[in-house]
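Dear colleagues,

As part of the handover before I leave the project, I'm documenting each prediction I ran so the next person doesn't have to rerun anything. This entry is a single chain, and its sequence is reproduced below.
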Amino acid sequence: MGEKTQWRILLSLPSTMHLIYLLDTVITDLLREMKFDEETQEHVNLAVIEAGTNAIKHGNKEDVDKTATFEFLIDDSQLTIIITDEGSGFQREDVANPLEPENLLKSSGRGLFLMEAYMDEVGYEADGTVVKMVKYRQTDN
């Protein structure tokens, strides 16, 4: 029986948008290492950056004394990303659907929409202060 490969990578950032490039660097390298195809890499990268931006900007209100934490769980079948902020949270149903005609010109809701469109699973826990996203690996078989 083959052993299951599993990695856990933890990245904690002060809540400033100046450091979002570190998140971009980590997720880009992880996706490449996991051999996701280029389109999937772009989609997952965008979803993770959106989630990180939400945690820093909306959750922690860019308060550098608050931390946004990114946990990457990697195994043979999937990549799981858990994003945690120290904000007051939100309810998913309170965020407007960006595809509704009355919301087309509003900027809110697009990040969540992209996250949900590009990831295989997206869940909101602890009143929205924890976002868990999963992307399954493609199988060559």
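The chain has a mean pLDDT of 89. The first helix runs from residue 20 to 33.

All the best with the project,
I.
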